[in-house]
Amino acid sequence: LCFDAGLNKLLVTLPAYSPRSKQIVQQNIQYTARELGVTDTTTKFPSSLNAKAACLIDADSGMVLFAKNADEKLPMASTTKIMTALIALESSDLSDTITFSSHAASMPDVQLNAMSGEQFTLRDLLYSLLLESHNDTAVAIAEHVSGSTEAFADKMNEKAVELGLSSTHFVTPNGLDADEHYTTAKELCLIASYALQNQTFCKIIRTPAHSFANRTNTKQYHVTNHDAFLTNYAGAIGIKTGFTGNAGYCFCGAAKRGDITLISSVLACGWPPHKKWTDTKKLMDYGFTNYKLVRLTETPMLQKIPVHGGRSNIMQPRRSVPARDTKLLMTSADTLRICYELPHSLKAPIRSGDIIGYENYYLNDTLLQSIPIASSSKIKEADAPYVARLLYQLYCITAISG
Questions:
Q1: What pTM did the predictor assign?
Q2: Catalytic residue among 18, 61, 68, 78
Q3: Tell me: the pLDDT tens digits for 122-132?
Q4: pLDDT value, residue 28
Q5: End-to-end CA distance of the chain, in Å?
Q6: Which of 18, 61, 68, 81 is catalytic?
Q7: Is 78 a catalytic residue?
């Protein structure tokens, strides 16, 4: 579903302020896939995946379309660098000058092989990081942003918490094997979904090759994109490969066809390396074959709610997020249900914007999105002075008409 996810995450955590009746009215509206125009999909799952863990999600909603051990904590090798790039992009300017320390230059292969003291722009090093997956570059970026790899890992973990990831923890910026450095196939997809919202990130991962020089223009460098999925699958966006002895072969990829963007991840794919591409293609084929995009362009009008003890006796609720096209992916076997949870009545005083209920979207039995419903206006309590004024006005009107 396409809503302001950050705002909703905050609003859903807030309790209702206005006193509500204990009786909650639940109204359900249900749509079958056929009623929404989805009639020609199949339900054949991808067969014999090599990966120990895999996941496929809809990039727009985060809805899981396929999962195999998708919540198991596993090392993720250089797919770590997706988060490294994000932190750099959000913390620094592309024109920043980054100096390689002796510690950065000492990192094991794969390396840019820059010398200690050599300087580059962040823009150029992001190509080194994401196209060639250079481990020394990752450390140089981390030290520039945070002063040390340990402090940078703290920023990575803070970002993971911000994104709602409970099973991801970073120790290094490059993904080299380390205790307590892990994610899950599902959460790796969610990190990638966030990354794809950054246009600079998207431009870099789709670049076939990039040439650049150090800041003193004394040495030239050339990096090539090693993402074979990018050129071997229709609609591929690419993203990031990874390998270590502990993690095995990993890949997180994305593809777009029409208005559908899918993100997949495979962890611990085994030997030979091409198995990660085979698994990824199976996942993408499954998603594009089985799921169709559905749009709900009209949302039901919210019914007015009686108000007791107020200067108005009725309240028109409103969605906390403006109504807009609702988009989701469905198979022909799915059912969409919209459940409204609203109080039978309200009691004044009521503040404008008070959370009074929820509009919940379910695909089959899975809750996709909960949208807070709020009061649309302020309603003051009908206190004694207010009642006295009303009685006086009524008396005056009666006297005049009499």
A1: 0.84
A2: 78
A3: 999 999 999 99
A4: 87
A5: 60
A6: 81
A7: yes
